[in-house]
């Protein structure tokens, strides 16, 4: 079993490969359906009962997400009432979420980890 704990926006999620998630709307990044996003804020990875915990993040791990679209959440109704003043107000709210699927949990490939050929003169 392989899973990871990642931080996306203000929330933390426990994810496995193939999981579908509803996360807070990623409007600032202009992601469209089918786009991929790499999450580098990986807090913990568990592989076969062996846990690797970051301080606070793991530098060499990355989680790849694929955007499936946007979706509206449940409607919330908030009612306020003030006694003896005849004041009543009802406000509705529907949050917008981004639906994603976790494609893979893998090691990050950086330019430092790639060995350059040695040139001798």
List the helices and strands and how they pair.
Layout: E1 2-8, E2 11-16, E3 20-24, E4 36-39, E5 42-47, E6 50-53, E7 61-82, E8 87-107
Antiparallel strand pairs: 1-2, 1-5, 3-8, 4-7, 5-6, 7-8
What can you tell me about this protein's structure?
With 121 residues, the protein is mainly beta. It has one domain. The chain has no helices and eight strands. It has strands spanning 2-8, 11-16, 20-24, 36-39, 42-47, 50-53, 61-82, 87-107. The strands form two sheets. A four-stranded antiparallel sheet has the order 2-1-5-6, with no helix packed on it. The protein has a four-stranded antiparallel sheet with strand order 3-8-7-4, with no helix packed on it. A hairpin with a 4-residue loop joins strand 7 and strand 8. The radius of gyration is 21 Å and the shape is elongated. It starts with a strand and ends in a 14-residue tail after the last strand. The mean pLDDT is 90.
The radius of gyration is 21 Å
What is the domain total for the residues? 1
Number of strands: 8
Based on secondary structure, the structural category is mainly beta
**Largest beta-sheet characterization:** 4 strands, antiparallel
Shape: elongated
State the separation between the terminal residues, measured CA to CA. 50 Å
Q: Tell me the strand order in the biggest sheet.
A: 2-1-5-6
Low-pLDDT runs of 5+ residues are none
Report the order of strands and helices: EEEEEEEE
By DSSP (H or I, 4+ residues per run), the number of helices equals 0
Proportion of helical residues: under 10%
Instruction: Estimate what percentage of residues fall within beta strands.
Output: over 45%
- Average pLDDT score: 90
